[in-house]
Write a structure and sequence with these properties.
single chain; Transferase(Phosphotransferase), domain 1; Serine Threonine Protein Phosphatase 5, Tetratricopeptide repeat; three-stranded mixed sheet; 8 strands; 8% strand; transferase; nucleotide-binding; lipoprotein; protein serine/threonine kinase activity; serine/threonine-protein kinase
């Protein structure tokens, strides 16, 4: 979810980054490599995204923002296994498809390691969809307000503030100074536990730019007065995120400012953070939040000021984010190589799988002991060959119910089972909405030919249909490894 080098990547060089020299190894190593993993922005077909999200299944909704349809975010899996986040708008939000694609393409050019990069869009029929990298470790909102194992430690909260300030500063350098509705739901954590800012916020929720869906108590004052978003509005919203980080709960900015003016800093601080920070650091953090939340837009700081204020507060820089957060580092394992069949199985394209199995025929079993080739010419063999013939005709003509019947008879007649017959019957079961039986046959095909990638790919397809995504991914990877092994033996 193969990876391509992005032609739109636009990263600062180390010489351009004043903080680069002070970064720990876990921040600097592989920065370019991380960006190499981001595919180039592209337009996806609706069928591909529908397959990736299993028909926009409610079970795959991952948005925690509280937004109702039609603006919903789904987890999806693209051709080749890449996990993505797919945001679905309504046509009413963006009636002009060309305008939607142009806006998305502009956002897709803005790339950075602190962003959840936008990698594609779709404007087909009545659908308006954005596609971004998938972040496996939840939102800042989840880690602050709904944590299960441990509250977010102080050092990690300061890191979040700093990294998101870096993201905003990069937006400014790219002349993208308007970010819509910045809040704790827009900050997500990647496989390393590093916080990133969602690129969805660069995209207006509609062509009219209706930008704020949060409680009015958290909305910038100028937006309430004029209905317009200005760059300083983004700083105000960033200030509300700082309050979330300080308190571990939602505090309306007006109430927080009253507490700050009254020097009641302890009333703001999350009690779970006791003993984790120096008083001066906490004071500086609170004062920065206060500056961001000023009523007059002109009194708020810019992103450069945020970086300069937060850089001295960074502690435990040598500790990776996932260790600070107490989470197991997860890595999205992509298949080394997928054949066309593997790709078709990964995207659950049954029609393409059918076409490939037809073209392949029985050639993968050439040289194997096979009753169809090595039995005496008897009436029983003639009957068996006719049964195979009728099964293959039914399979070719997509009469999958008849194919199941004929192949089932054939399996009973053959003393040496055929992996191809099991593979064809497996797909026929899938076409007939019977994934459990399809999985059984794909496993039987593997018994017949233990290192046949087709058997692994069909198991992956059946497992995906059964909702067993992790097992399906493992099977895809095993099939891909066998492809590599087969190609290596050919070269040798």
């Amino acid at each position: 979810m193969g990876c391509f080098h992005s032609k739109t990547t636009n990263l600062h060089s180390p010489e351009d980054d004043p903080d680069h020299a002070d970064k720990p190894d876990h921040e600097t190593n592989g920065e370019a490599g991380d960006q190499d993993q981001v595919p180039a922005f592209k337009e996806y077909g609706l069928a591909e995204l529908r397959a990736a999200t299993k028909g926009f299944s409610p079970d795959l909704i991952v948005s925690e923002s509280g937004e109702k349809a039609p603006n919903v975010v789904y987890r999806g899996k693209l051709d080749g296994g890449r996990l993505v986040a797919v945001k679905r708008f309504s046509k009413q939000s963006w009636p002009d498809a060309q305008q939607f694609v142009a806006e998305a393409a502009g956002v897709g050019k803005v790339r950075h390691k602190r962003l959840v990069n936008l990698i594609g869009c779709c404007a087909e029929d009545d659908e308006r969809l954005l596609v971004a990298e998938f972040m496996p470790n939840d939102t800042l909102s989840k880690h602050l307000f709904h944590w299960d194992k441990q509250p977010l430690p102080w050092a990690m909260r300061v890191r979040v503030a700093y990294y998101i300030a870096q993201a905003l500063d990069h937006y400014n350098t790219e002349n993208r100074r308007i970010y819509h509705d910045l809040n704790s739901y827009r900050v997500l954590f990647d496989e390393d536990g590093d916080p990133r800012l969602s690129s969805f916020g660069l995209m207006k929720n509609s062509r009219d730019g209706k930008s704020y869906s949060t409680n009015l108590a958290y909305t910038p004052p100028e937006f309430l007065r004029t209905g317009r978003v200005i760059p300083e509005s983004v700083i105000y919203s960033y200030g509300t995120v700082l309050l979330d980080l300080l308190s571990g709960k939602h505090i309306p900015p007006s109430h927080a400012l009253d507490l700050i003016r009254g020097k009641n800093m302890l009333m703001i601080m999350d009690s779970s953070l006791e003993g984790q920070y120096a008083n001066d650091d906490a004071t500086n953090f609170v004062e920065l939040a206060s500056k961001c939340l000023q009523f007059e837009a002109r009194d708020r700081p810019n992103s450069k000021f945020l970086l300069s204020a937060l850089a001295p507060l960074q502690t435990q820089k040598e500790i990776p984010s996932h260790a600070l957060m107490g989470i197991t580092k997860t890595e999205q394992v992509l298949p080394v190589m997928l054949s066309p069949l593997g790709k078709a199985c990964a995207r659950m394209d049954l029609t393409a799988v059918h076409d490939i199995l037809l073209k392949t025929g029985y050639k993968d079993e050439e040289g194997a002991e096979n009753e169809l080739s090595f039995q005496e010419w008897t009436q029983q063999v003639q009957e068996m060959l006719n049964t195979k013939k009728f099964g293959d005709i039914a399979f070719r003509d997509k009469d999958f119910k008849s194919a199941i019947d004929y192949y089932s008879k054939l399996v009973m007649m053959m003393s040496v089972p055929s992996a191809t017959v099991f593979a064809r019957r497996s797909l026929s079961y899938l076409m007939n909405g019977q994934p459990e039986l399809a999985l059984r046959d794909a496993m039987q095909a593997q018994v017949c030919m233990p290192e046949w990638p087709t058997a692994f790919y069909l198991q992956a397809l059946a497992l995906s249909k059964l909702g067993m995504e992790k097992d399906a991914q493992d099977m895809l990877n095993d099939g891909a490894a066998l492809e590599v092994k087969k190609q290596s033996s050919w070269r040798g």
